[in-house]
Task: inverse folding
């Protein structure tokens, strides 16, 4: 039973570039949430996708956008990268509906901005 | 006031002792609470969740919830050096969706 998979594992970009991160949810899960975790902090919610739509968004600028595909996989896109975007980006999957089910995290993508 | 608060630690306990990790939250309407363990450089791993007041036990782990006091805790019995990690408390946001609000985590160090 495959868990949540994310790619790539590490990424180095320069300021102003754009990046796309990918996530495949755990088998049987239909909801994908994205989080940003800065060093020494807890994960911060970016947004959540269910039925191919963004259904909740955290306090992140429009430079952060996403997409969910019919197979429930998801992408996170970040445009005009800033130094402050350097962080561990985590994808979590869960079973949708009322949202009471626990979220399971992938291994994350560590993004470094130079 | 932060939405979810935890002591940053480090909490240092000897091997075999009980480690007690605490978390308070600000939204009185919160209904679902989660504990994640995160090893350095790794992603969070779900270890416990609790929805009802009282205690919930799973092996060496016990989660305790007191909604009146807006307090949730995690007890680790017979602590092992392999339990050394950062423990993240997460609260499901209100509004029907699954957004998790995390504390900054408590670093636990179990020494032999």
Result:
């Amino acid at each position: 039973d495959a868990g949540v998979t994310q790619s790539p594992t590490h990424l180095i970009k320069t300021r102003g570039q754009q990046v796309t991160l990918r996530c495949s949810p755990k088998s049987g899960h239909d909801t994908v949430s994205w989080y940003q975790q800065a060093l020494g902090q807890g994960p911060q919610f970016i947004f959540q996708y269910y039925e191919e739509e963004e259904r909740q968004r955290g306090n992140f600028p429009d430079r952060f956008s996403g997409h969910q595909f019919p197979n429930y996989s998801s992408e996170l896109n970040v445009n005009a990268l800033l130094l402050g975007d350097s962080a561990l980006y985590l994808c979590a999957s869960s079973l949708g509906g009322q949202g009471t089910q626990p979220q399971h995290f992938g291994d994350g993508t560590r993004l470094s901005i130079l | 006031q932060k939405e979810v608060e935890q002591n940053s630690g480090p909490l240092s306990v000897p091997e075999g002792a009980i480690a007690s990790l605490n978390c308070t939250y600000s939204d009185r309407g919160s209904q679902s609470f989660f504990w994640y363990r995160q090893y350095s450089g790794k992603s969070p791993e779900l270890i416990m969740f609790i929805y009802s007041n009282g205690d919930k036990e799973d092996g060496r782990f016990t989660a305790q919830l007191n909604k009146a006091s807006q307090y949730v805790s995690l007890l680790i019995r017979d602590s092992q050096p392999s339990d050394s990690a950062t423990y993240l408390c997460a609260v499901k946001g209100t509004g029907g969706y699954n957004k998790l609000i995390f504390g900054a985590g408590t670093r636990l160090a179990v020494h032999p």
Notes: The radius of gyration of chain A is 13 Å. The interface with chain B takes residues 31, 33, 35, 40-45, 48, 55-56, 58, 88, 90, 92, 94, 96, 98-108 of chain A (CB under 8 Å). Chain A has a mean pLDDT of 94. The CA atoms of residues 23 and 78 of chain A lie 14 Å apart.
